[in-house]
Structures are given as structure tokens and as C-alpha cells.
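Q: Is it fine to ask for two folds in a single conversation?
A: Yes, each is treated on its own. Send the first.
Q: Here.
A: Result:
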Amino acid sequence: MKDKAISLLKSLTEAHSVPGYEDEVRDIFIEELVSVGDLSSDRMGGVYCERGQGPKILLAGHMDEIGFRVQNITPDGFIKFLPVGGWWAHTLLSQRVEVKTRSGAKVLGVIASKPPHFLPESERSKVMALGALFIDVGAASREEVERDFGIQLGDPIAPETEFTAMQKRDYYMAKAFDNRVGMACAIQTVQELSDEELPNTLIACGTVQEEVGLRGAKVAAVKVQPDVAIVLEGPPADDAPGFPKSEAQGRLGGGVQIRMQDPTAIMNPRLVELVVETAEREGIRYQLTMRTSGGTDAGSFHQSNEGVPSIVLGTPARYIHSHNGIIDINDYLEMVKLSLALVRRLDAETVAGLTQYL
């Protein structure tokens, strides 16, 4: 399972898939699952793999990563850009990016600004506003950018980062762990269960445009009409300097994160209890989490239709929403194990019990 996880995470994290342009991750999902279940898609670009019979268990990750789009091209060939998703400007200067053209070609560039040598002292200590940044692709004119490089307004832009093993065993650095760990887990869980008879209908799903407002999840909820939603995520770790160790709820090496609440969703308490009991019964390391900020596709799923019991499982990642995040792959493997155990337990009686209030 571990070797497969490393290979899958490498492919997914190095894919170029910003909101609205999730094609490369979608292609990996299809390639991995085409022989495992029935594939379908929705009209926003979300993709699904379904197998089994019984209550519908949705295992969902979002395919998009935060990125940018070409907003303008200056007469002298520099690219102005718009963020798509939540970027912190501190992380951007001197970082490599790739502009993906209509033809599918990828043009390498670097995020730059006016050099500090030419800034007054009062501006050197301030964070550059996004509007003051630009991308240099090595062109001399707008005509060269458009004619020779094939770049046009609206083209998507993603970080350019390799999936890399770190010195510490089982630590890996890459972009887009939010949320390629979720996509990998959805894919790998379905593959691991491919030869088993399930007590339910398992539907693995890759949603779109999560980073700009949980948009694809709204469509997925209408299409699937799930009875339970298990949202797989790459949430921010809180074990680096600046966080009290005693309050950490997303520590690398601490196991799969089980989220009980965030500003967008209060998870079904009975489902939370089932998830925790399952983790303990199976000897799966876990971390319970109450988040005071952020949100996931559970924010859309849990209040869709007549209400859907939802839970968020996560692989904590340091420095998400930047070019270089870090995970402990053992936390990811615990997330896969818990996903497998939950799918095996969610039969009709168990699912019905989550929402019996009378």
C-alpha cells in the first residue's frame, strides 16, 4: 500500500489543476479507476466511480489546488495575474510557476516584483500586495508572449514543484497536498476494496472548485444524493513554531485527523462517535480536531438535500497553500485504513441509525 501511495501522490501533486481547470487530476482518477467501477461525471467537471449496492457512501476529495489565472500582459511581456483561491503574499516572491496554454503546453515563469534595491526603506519591510507582483516568463513583449509562447488572458497558472522525499524517513515535500492527499485516498480506498462485496454503494468522487467556495460539492450532492459523506482532506498542520504544543490537533506523525467542527460544518455526532470507535477498534492512530477557521466540502454536503451525515478525515500538512508543503506519509496511510474500515461498517442499519430522531 505504501509504494502505491508514494507513486500516486507524486502523480497527483505534480499535476496542474487549479479551480475550473481540474483536467489533469481528473485524468488520473479515470485512469486509476476505469476498471474498478462505473465512471460518470457532472456538468461542472466532477468525476465519480461507483460500485456496490445499498446506502450511498460518498468518499469525496476535491481535485483543485489554489493557483492563478492570467489577468493581463504588459506591453513589455510581463504577466499580471489573479489569485484563484486563498494565497498569502508572503509565500510568493521568487517562486516558480507554470502557465498552461490552450494547447496544453506549460510555460515556466517566476513570480517577481520591483527589486528591494529600488524601494524606499518604508516599503521594504512591508508585504508586497498581490497587485504589485507579476510573472516573468522571459519574454520581451506582449506580442512574443501571445504569438511565440501561446499565452492568452485567462490561462491557468499553478506552482511548479517536484514531489520530493526528505531526509527524515516518510516525510515528503510537494505542492497541493491540499487536496491531493484526499484524491489519492479516495482512489486508493476504492482500489483496495475492488475485490470485496460491500454492504453499501461506494461512490468515490473528485469535486471541482472547492478552493473558491465549495462549488462542485453542491453539484455532487444533487447528483449522488448520498446517505453519508466522508470528506477526505489535506488540512493545515499546527505543530510548527508559533503553536503551543499542548494545543496541537494536527501534528505530523499523529495519525489521521478526525474533524468534528469548523465554521462551515458541525459533523453528525453519531457519525463522529462511529468514526472514533472504528479507529480505536482497528488500532488506527487519530487526532480529534475542533477547527476555529477554514472549511471543507462538508460545508456543502452536510446541508444538502434533507441533510447528509458528514465527517472530515485529513492528513495534516505543514505550509498548505504554498509551493512547498510537508506530510508524514504514515498519517496518509492511517487515513486510508480508516476510510476502508468505515466503508466496511456502513451497512443499511448503521447508516439509518445516524439520522433516526423519532
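Q: Second one now.
A: Result:
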Amino acid sequence: MHALDGVRVLDLGTYIAGPFCATVLGEFGADVVKIERPGSGDHLRRFGTETDCGDTLVWLSEARNKRSVTLNLADPRGRELLRELVADADVVIENFRPGVLERWGLSFPEIQAINPRTILLRMSAYGQSGPLADQPGFARVAHAYAGLSLLAGEPAGPPVTPGSTSLGDYLAGLYGVVGVLLALRAREATGAGQCVDMALYEPIFRVLDEIAPAYQQFGFVRERMGADTVNVVPHSHYRTADDRWIAIACSNDEMFARLARAMGDPALADPDRFGPKASRLAARDEVNALVTAWAGGLTRDEALARCRAAEVPAGPLNSIADIFDDPQFAHRGTITTAESRIGPLAVPSVIPALSDTPGEIRWLGPALGADTDAVLAELLHRDAAEITRLRDAGVI
């Protein structure tokens, strides 16, 4: 049993944000039918490292558990097939620019007329309304617009992207999951679906802790701080004697006192030294210099061992090579190996872990249109002859 058994999702999206929401739903049992353009499919098939099967590693990992169906939505017959699929769908996910669904005759009111129980998740760069609603955007633009990119980098250096990853797409996808699950829960009470409207930049802004109230109350504009954290110290990255790095996070006075003991100098945490947080913040450079000097006299493993013995929150700055050898990752099964069209492939595992209805990877990214015939026969009751006619006409 899976938590979302019996839920059918139509994934109309491209790239990552909307489709990642569908991926997570599919990991927990939803039947995800991925709608793609005949001949080319989702752009995600060509986004990332190419493989011998013709699709990228990103596609193989992130299109897991989906059934691929090709429909030419520029053709009225393709749009009619899509409307038939909507009639039996619990959730429809799209991340086009506002107006695309309307041109296809699938605005939310039109979807409700087909199936009043359907939930529509709409993702776009700036949401369905507002002065920028019609503008395109990707994660990098969303990181910048939401205020994250200006916070990333060294104080005297240029702003940098927060990791070479589509963080905003994945965050939006996760918030999309929250929206869909909330709407499914509400439907249990009302019997009606609803529209979930998500702008790509909004989840990024949502996780920037106190940046908004700090500006509204005090006019404080946070700037780039490198590896440091605005409200606490030491809370940064420190190089060790073997030219590796550790992260130390002392978020309160008690944690700093533990670190001072681990450093062999408990007097650092005295009230007249750096014990109170305010004293540490006022002497940020001096405190960081002391921790830097201490870490620099030890290997990474020695420094981590002392921190862990003293219950100081600390960890290594891992590369992916480190992660593959890490015993905690191995114990938790955070990386799993699944069969794919290029053979066994290591991919991130399903999270979170549910005790009774866990998710699973049933298959990795399918070939383009691999399930078209089966879905049209199973869900729309088309026979083989009609499917052949649709294919010959370029509708599928």
C-alpha cells in the first residue's frame, strides 16, 4: 500500500518545477501520466548529462514512476484526448506561461466543467496574476528576484548562484506537493477540486528566515557574508590541517561553551569574554579567527571527533565522492540503485521515510511515448486500429 494509491495525476509540465511535484506524488503511489509532445518530448530529456539511451541522467532520475504519453496539443484531436484524460484525473499539473491552458480550452473553470473534483496546480515564474505574470523565468532568475542570489558569495565579491542546482525549481515542486495534498484533504470535506497558484520565486522568498521583518522593523538590508550567518557566530566553514573543510554551527551560548571546551579553552565562554551571543557578534572576526586557528591545527577527522565528543554541531563539507563513501548515507539508503534504460543507475532515494506506507521507485524515466498505447486503451478505451489512425495522423 502507498499513501497516494488511487490518485491519478496528469503531468503537463516541462523541465523541473511542476514535473518534480508530480515525481514526488508518484513516489508515494500516484499514477502519474506524463503528457509530452510527439517527436521531442519534455525539454528535460535533453537537460543534463546525455546518455546512450538518448535521454539525460536528469530525466532518468526525475521522471521516475511516470507513464509517458505523447499528445499533439496543437491539434484539436490531441486537445480532445487531453480533455478526456482530465475527466478521470484527480490532479492536473502545469508550468506554462499564464494563458497557455486557456488557449487549449482548459482554463480552471473549463476543467471544473469537465471534472469538478480535479485539482489544478499552476506553476509559473511570477504566478497567474500581477504585472510580471506573462514573463518567462527559470530557477536562476527566481533566485535573483526573490532575494537569495544577492546573499550568496563573499562580502567583497560578486553575487553567486547558491550552488550549481535548480534549487528554486525543487523548492517550488515541494511547495506544489503541499498545495496538492492540502487540496486533496479539502476535497474530502467539500467534494470539489480547487486551483493552486504557485510562483517560482515565492518558495525561495519564503525560506529567507527574518529578512522581511528585519527590513520592515529596522531597515536592515542583509548583505553577502560568505560562509557566515547573520545572527550567530561561530557559524561558518573552517579549513583543517589536511586542507579539508568542516562546518561548525554554534547557534546559542551553550553550544559555544561546548566548543570552547572542545578547543581546550573553556574560558572563552566566560561572561566577560565571548560567552554571551552579543559579545561574540561584536567580535565576529576575532571569534572566527580563534576557531580557524584551532581547526587549522587538526585534521578534518580530528576536529570532527572533538566536536562530536563535546556535542558541538559540526560536519564535513562533503563532495559527492565523499557522500558515496559515507556510512550514514549508506545506512539510511539515501542513495539507491535502480534499473534504467542504461543499466543500474545510482539516484537519490525516496524521502521522507513512512513506516506504514513508504514510497518507492518502480522505474526510472521512460522512453518517449512508451505508455501511449496502454494509456489510451486503458483510460480512454481506444482500440488498436484507432490508436494506429491517431499515430498516422500525428496526433500521438
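Q: Anything structural to flag on that second result?
A: Two points. The two ends are 33 Å apart (CA to CA). The CA atoms of residues 125 and 131 lie 12 Å apart.
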